[in-house]
Write a structure and sequence with these properties.
The chain is an alpha/beta fold. It has one domain: Rossmann fold (3-Layer(aba) Sandwich), CATH 3.40.50.720. Helix content is 50%, strand content 14%. The protein contains twelve helices and seven strands. A seven-stranded parallel beta sheet has the order 3-2-1-4-5-6-7, with helices on both faces. Strand 1 (8-14), helix 2 and strand 2 form a beta-alpha-beta unit. The N and C termini lie far apart (79 Å). The structure holds NADP nicotinamide-adenine-dinucleotide phosphate (NAP).
Length: 286
């Protein structure tokens, strides 16, 4: 037996302490994969690992802030120390913010680029060459239906998901014939803490759109990936949203989304310090 054969393949899920990432880890573990759960909160990770073990799966955890410069190297070291290799990478860590781009704190908005774009890209580029060399495995990247259009009042989030879909679909094409798959998953609203934390659930758009369960999204994501799919858009309403976004011109989509994501009590984007309804909102209604 060679040293190499002692190294076991693992499904590495970043953003696995809750939500969609945790649900994908559960699906993979149910199919017999060893899963490595990564997120910042040790308590959330321990709870997620306990659920997986109770269901008969194998899970180990790593508490790590993916925004740290050396996150990819630390994850690699952790895998080596546990005689594991990243066979499948699931990039599910991400966050968003609802509100005017001129009003939301700049650092919080830049953090969306650091996590949703930079960390996802770094991990993908770090682990893909090994997968290609082994001729197996792949990457699941969590995009969103937000990737199909710009999104006023969630500008950074929509733009970050546009990047994720573009990057993932291009990689999928580049890797044709290698037995390695990159799949972008683009759900509409999913009932997780994301909606509350981002403030999205206070916008009319997210009240109108039906919400999916993370378990359903995870099943679609995992089986779509296993079948080599480039893009998975789970659920009818997300498919419809993506279709409408592709059909309607920006001149229609932008004011529509802006209206559905802005709240009249929001601080006015013009910087007056007043509420929107008492400032530019009042002027545009008069
Ligand atoms: N929920 C939706 O409506 C929806 C719709 C479409 C797409 N998505 C996308 O799906 C993905 C998962 O979303 P979700 O709904 O499952 O969100 P969630 O419930 O808020 O989970 C986010 C996960 O990311 C981890 N995370 C956040 N910041 C991190 C950091 N700096 N380093 C390491 N881990 C970090 C969180 O754990 P810790 O806080 O412990 O670090 C948590 O495990 C995101 O990319 C999101 O944009 C969500």
């Amino acid at each position: 037996m060679t040293l190499h054969s002692l190294v076991r393949p693992a499904v590495v899920v970043v953003g696995a302490s809750r939500g969609i990432g945790k649900a994908i880890a559960e699906v993979a573990a149910k199919e017999g994969a060893t899963v490595v759960l990564v997120a910042r909160s040790p308590e959330g990770l321990a709870a997620a690992a306990t659920d997986i073990r109770k269901a008969g799966g194998e899970a180990i955890t790593l508490a790590l802030d993916l925004m740290a410069e050396d996150a990819a190297a630390r994850l690699e070291d952790f895998l080596s120390a546990n005689s594991l290799m990243c066979d499948v990478l699931v990039n599910s860590a991400g966050y968003g913010l609802r509100g005017g781009a001129t009003v939301l704190p700049v650092d919080d908005q830049l953090g969306i680029i650091d996590l949703n774009i930079r960390a996802l890209t770094h991990l993908t580029l770090h682990f893909l060459p090994g997968m290609v060399a082994r001729g197996r495995g792949g990457v699941i990247n969590l995009g969103s239906v937000a990737s199909f259009t710009p999104g006023p009042y969630m500008a950074l989030y929509y733009a970050s998901k546009g990047f994720v879909r573009s990057f993932s679909e291009a990689l999928h094409q580049e890797l044709r014939g290698t037995s390695v798959t990159v799949t972008c998953v683009a759900p509409g609203p999913v009932s997780t803490e994301f909606l509350e934390k981002s403030g999205a659930n206070r916008a009319a758009l997210f009240k109108i759109l039906p919400k999916l369960d993370s378990e359903y999204v995870a099943e679609r994501a995992w089986h779509g990936f296993k079948s080599g799919r480039r893009l998975v858009v789970p659920g009818i309403s997300a498919k419809l949203t993506a279709f409408v976004a592709a059909l309607l011109p920006s001149a229609v989509m932008l004011p529509l989304i802006g209206r559905l994501q802005r709240r009249s009590n929001d601080p006015c984007p013009c910087g007056s310090g007043k509420k929107f309804k008492a400032c530019c909102g009042a002027r545009s209604n008069s």
